[in-house]
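In the current project phase, we have settled on a layout for protein records. One protein thus recorded is set out beneath this paragraph:
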Amino acid sequence: MYDFLIYSGGRVGIAVGDVSGKGAPAALFAALVGGMVRSMTSLEPSPAEMLTSINLSLNELRIDAQFVSMLYSVMGRRTAHDADCKFWSASTDLLPSRQDRDG
Protein backbone atom coordinates (compact mmCIF):
# COMPACT_ATOMS: atom_id res chain seq x y z
CA MET A 1 0.00 0.00 0.00
CA TYR A 2 1.12 3.55 -0.64
CA ASP A 3 -0.36 7.05 -0.64
CA PHE A 4 0.68 10.64 -1.27
CA LEU A 5 -0.87 13.28 0.98
CA ILE A 6 -0.81 17.04 0.38
CA TYR A 7 0.29 19.24 3.29
CA SER A 8 0.38 23.03 3.38
CA GLY A 9 3.48 24.94 2.32
CA GLY A 10 4.21 22.64 -0.59
CA ARG A 11 4.98 19.68 1.66
CA VAL A 12 3.95 16.12 0.79
CA GLY A 13 3.32 13.19 3.11
CA ILE A 14 4.27 9.80 1.70
CA ALA A 15 3.02 6.55 3.21
CA VAL A 16 4.43 3.17 2.16
CA GLY A 17 3.35 0.01 3.93
CA ASP A 18 2.86 -3.73 3.73
CA VAL A 19 0.17 -5.64 5.58
CA SER A 20 0.41 -9.21 6.79
CA GLY A 21 -1.41 -12.00 5.02
CA LYS A 22 -2.98 -12.12 1.60
CA GLY A 23 -6.35 -12.15 -0.07
CA ALA A 24 -9.47 -10.36 1.10
CA PRO A 25 -8.51 -10.07 4.81
CA ALA A 26 -5.20 -8.38 3.93
CA ALA A 27 -6.91 -6.09 1.41
CA LEU A 28 -9.49 -5.02 4.00
CA PHE A 29 -6.77 -4.41 6.58
CA ALA A 30 -4.81 -2.29 4.05
CA ALA A 31 -7.96 -0.28 3.33
CA LEU A 32 -8.49 0.24 7.07
CA VAL A 33 -4.92 1.50 7.57
CA GLY A 34 -5.14 3.67 4.45
CA GLY A 35 -8.33 5.25 5.79
CA MET A 36 -6.62 5.99 9.09
CA VAL A 37 -3.74 7.70 7.26
CA ARG A 38 -6.13 9.79 5.13
CA SER A 39 -8.24 10.78 8.16
CA MET A 40 -5.18 12.24 9.91
CA THR A 41 -3.97 14.27 6.92
CA SER A 42 -5.92 17.43 7.77
CA LEU A 43 -3.99 17.65 11.07
CA GLU A 44 -0.66 17.59 9.16
CA PRO A 45 1.03 15.33 11.71
CA SER A 46 4.75 14.68 11.85
CA PRO A 47 5.84 11.18 10.81
CA ALA A 48 6.14 10.15 14.45
CA GLU A 49 2.69 11.52 15.30
CA MET A 50 1.11 9.79 12.29
CA LEU A 51 2.49 6.34 13.05
CA THR A 52 1.91 6.66 16.80
CA SER A 53 -1.74 7.49 16.18
CA ILE A 54 -2.19 4.58 13.75
CA ASN A 55 -0.47 2.21 16.16
CA LEU A 56 -2.72 3.28 19.06
CA SER A 57 -5.84 2.91 16.90
CA LEU A 58 -4.85 -0.56 15.69
CA ASN A 59 -4.05 -1.66 19.24
CA GLU A 60 -7.57 -0.63 20.31
CA LEU A 61 -9.09 -2.76 17.52
CA ARG A 62 -7.09 -5.86 18.52
CA ILE A 63 -7.34 -7.60 15.17
CA ASP A 64 -5.75 -11.03 15.61
CA ALA A 65 -2.88 -12.07 13.33
CA GLN A 66 -2.88 -8.77 11.37
CA PHE A 67 -0.12 -6.20 11.36
CA VAL A 68 1.37 -3.55 9.11
CA SER A 69 4.96 -2.48 8.49
CA MET A 70 5.00 1.14 7.46
CA LEU A 71 7.23 4.06 6.54
CA TYR A 72 5.84 7.59 6.67
CA SER A 73 7.72 10.61 5.38
CA VAL A 74 7.01 14.32 5.08
CA MET A 75 8.97 16.07 2.36
CA GLY A 76 9.16 19.79 1.70
CA ARG A 77 11.34 22.53 0.29
CA ARG A 78 13.19 25.06 2.37
CA THR A 79 14.57 26.91 -0.65
CA ALA A 80 14.80 26.24 -4.37
CA HIS A 81 18.02 24.25 -3.83
CA ASP A 82 17.46 22.77 -0.37
CA ALA A 83 14.85 20.09 0.38
CA ASP A 84 13.82 18.79 3.79
CA CYS A 85 12.78 15.18 4.43
CA LYS A 86 11.87 13.51 7.70
CA PHE A 87 10.67 9.94 8.04
CA TRP A 88 9.68 7.43 10.65
CA SER A 89 9.31 3.68 10.33
CA ALA A 90 7.16 1.28 12.27
CA SER A 91 8.01 -2.43 12.08
CA THR A 92 11.56 -3.69 12.56
CA ASP A 93 14.98 -2.26 13.28
CA LEU A 94 16.04 -2.48 9.63
CA LEU A 95 15.84 1.30 9.22
CA PRO A 96 16.86 4.03 11.64
CA SER A 97 13.88 5.14 13.72
CA ARG A 98 14.27 8.72 12.60
CA GLN A 99 16.41 10.46 10.04
CA ASP A 100 16.86 14.13 9.26
CA ARG A 101 19.47 16.38 7.64
CA ASP A 102 21.70 16.21 10.73
CA GLY A 103 21.77 12.39 10.75
Q: What stands out?
A: The chain has one domain: 2-99. Residues 92-99 have pLDDT under 50 and may be disordered.
